[in-house]
Amino acid sequence: MRASGRAADEMRPIEMIPGFSKHAEGSCLVKFGDTHVLVTATFEDRGPPWLRDSGKGWITAEYGMLPRATHDRTGREAARGKQTGRTQEIQRLIGRSLRAIADLSALGERQIRVDCDVLQADGGTRTASISGAYVALHQCAHWMYNEGWLERKPLSDSVAAVSCGLVDGQPALDLDYVEDSGASTDANFVLTGQGGIVEIQSTAEEDPFTEEEFLRLLRLARIGCDTIRQAQDTAIRSYAG
């Protein structure tokens, strides 16, 4: 039993509220326990300049944390005039994860911008962002199709992400901040609904982990992503009918 009272293969409570933002073409307020992220998806009737005349569109992401999303105030990156390496890494991960399940040709020369703003952080902000971003992206694509911007729907699969780690030598799913900060190994898994692997980020903080330990974490990740996918499906049904 973990400090939170959860079993090793148990997720934190998940809540996804689609359409949370009044003005965005797609949006989702996603909660993994005490980690809360607001995701919006914005339609633009133009693609990036480097894709001009290619017939393809693009999906890109930005990520940021509000100053008091954490225990201590973190200064705004805009005020410092520079994004941290962590921020750049995370937003690129989010963009790659969404593009992995999208047909960019179906978008035409248009772009969807996904913004992930962390309102409150308790571990797993990047995985919550990816999981909520899929719902916001799906809603935006649904709107584009219904409004006549698309001839066919661009998403071929779903995508979800979850963290796992070795905590006190034992594999655990969906780490909160306390677990993540003390884990000897932590990993982030991005998986599609059909079981494909988009990306795995895994690091040993102390002793190296074994192949068997890695496979145990992967098995936990699949359990977690199945749970997330159910929450995504429920959110999508609430607006798609």
How would you sum up this structure, described in words?
With 241 residues, the chain is of the alpha+beta class. It has one domain (14-238): Ribosomal Protein S5, domain 2 (2-Layer Sandwich). Helix content is 32%, strand content 29%. The protein contains five helices and nine strands. A five-stranded mixed β-sheet has the order 1-2-3-5-4. The longest helix has 30 residues, at 211-240. The radius of gyration is 18 Å and the shape is globular. It is an enzyme of class 2 (transferase). Phosphate binds at residues 86, 124-126. It holds the Pfam family RNase_PH_C.
Essential attributes:
Ribosomal Protein S5, domain 2, 32% helix, alpha+beta, four-stranded antiparallel sheet, transferase, 29% strand, tRNA nucleotidyltransferase activity, EC 2.7.7.56, 241 residues, 3'-5'-RNA exonuclease activity
Question: How would you summarize the topology of this molecule?
Answer:
Layout: E1 14-18, E2 26-32, E3 35-44, E4 58-65, H1 77-80, H2 85-99, E5 111-120, H3 125-146, E6 159-167, E7 170-173, H4 177-182, E8 185-192, E9 197-204, H5 211-240
Parallel strand pairs: 4-5
Antiparallel strand pairs: 1-2, 2-3, 3-5, 6-7, 6-8, 8-9
Helix pairs in contact: 2-3, 3-5
The class by helix and strand makeup works out as alpha+beta
Q: How many distinct domains? A: 1
CATH superfamily: GHMP Kinase, N-terminal domain
Please state how the strands of the largest beta sheet are arranged side by side.
1-2-3-5-4
Instruction: Please bin the fraction of helical residues.
Output: 25-40%
* CATH class type: Alpha Beta
Quantity of strands, as a count = 9
Overall pLDDT score:
95
Taken from the alpha-carbon principal axes, the silhouette is globular
Rounded to an integer in angstroms, the radius of gyration calculated over CA atoms is 18 Å
Determine the N-to-C terminus distance.
Answer: 39 Å
Do you know the CATH architecture? 2-Layer Sandwich
> Main β-sheet: number of strands, strand sense, barrel status?
5 strands, mixed
Regions with pLDDT < 50 over 5+ consecutive residues? none
Q: Give me the strand/helix succession.
A: EEEEHHEHEEHEEH
Work out the strand percent: 25-35%
CATH topology: Ribosomal Protein S5, domain 2
How many H/I helical runs? 5
Family: Belongs to the RNase PH family.
Protein name: Ribonuclease PH
Catalytic activity: tRNA(n+1) + phosphate = tRNA(n) + a ribonucleoside 5'-diphosphate
EC number: 2.7.7.56
